[in-house]
Design a protein that fits this description.
The chain has 11 helices and 17 strands. The chain is an alpha/beta fold and about 400 residues long. It has a 7-stranded mixed sheet, sandwiched between helices. Helix 6 (about 175-195) packs across helix 7. The model has no long low-confidence stretch (mean pLDDT about 95).
Amino acid sequence: MKAGKIGILTGGGDVPGLNAVIKTVVYRASEMDRPVIGIRRGWEGLTHINFDDPTSVARYIRSLDRENTRNIDRTGGTWLHSSRTNPAKMKKIPSFLQGVTFKASENTKKGVTSTVYDMTPQVLKNLEKLEIEYLVAIGGDDTLSYAAHLDRLGVKVIAVPKTMDNDVRNTEYCIGFSTAVNRATDAIDRQRSTIGSHERIGIFRIFGRDAGYTALYTAYVNSMRCVIPEFKVNVDKLIDLLFTDKKQNPSSYSLVLLSEGAEWEGYQVEEYGRADAFGHRKKMNVAEALNELIQEKTGEETVVSDLTYDLRSGAPDFVDRMVASTFAGMAADLIEKGEHGKMMAINHGCYAAVEIPDPKLGPRKVDIESMYNVERYRPTYAGKMGLPIFLTRP
């Protein structure tokens, strides 16, 4: 008799390393004689699949084996595709389920109230129909918050954290982070030549809606100023620092890196567009806002560069492939032991299985006191003795 099936899905934004998780889970599952079902487009695959429609089944479900996942770890993105779907707060019920009653509630975001539906009963029904015993959910805070909800309802869930923002609680590292900061460093190094040639101020924007890890670590290795969501700088002081850097630089240029959610005194990032399933709207480009201020106050020549989506594209680097493969192997170990309700993590520099974070706590934030110099608007370089490789605790 074969062991129960393993389901696997990826939710939210893609990052390099996701395919390495998928492949390793499949390979380890084959050793345990467990079939693996790939659920396409994240949680949407479990809310929108119509088993009476072969086209729908083909769209959302794919059997995974060693042959069809053999080389996917060499590529970026997610082979299973993704979506930003929250089954607990669906704005629209799929047409084939219009006759089914789901619990409705009012959801208010940014002053706008709308009706949302909890399709969790349908998700549970579909997992049972697919005969999935264990579900491996790969994602950030939003994806994993629903994974934890399912585990509390009796679904055996194993969570794998991924986000280039590196802001999931209970872990020091999330898949995608290393590749992102590597790509950001490469891009900044390349642009130094043209910024320096024209003696300008380079203003860079990077992902980081709620936490500044990606900006902080990139600035750390590039010796540059940075502005992160956790601390509101004084913009006049920031401009003075950039002019001082420019004056003291033999090539007469300076650089600053801003998280997308960064703000300064008297300025709040504006948002636009429709909110996604988890209430997030796109943020206006804070680098452009700073650029306008510099132009207005000084008339200095600048270069503005957006380093966002390019950093999550392409193949993963060594660290992300290694961590992704290891997290997947750990997930398989837990399944073999019959455990669930755990998230794969790095704690104090070591691999660990921890509790899936409580979504009420929100994202993990940069510890300003130990990691950010509030006088110099740059990373703190002192006091690192004894810290794990990523210089922070979960």
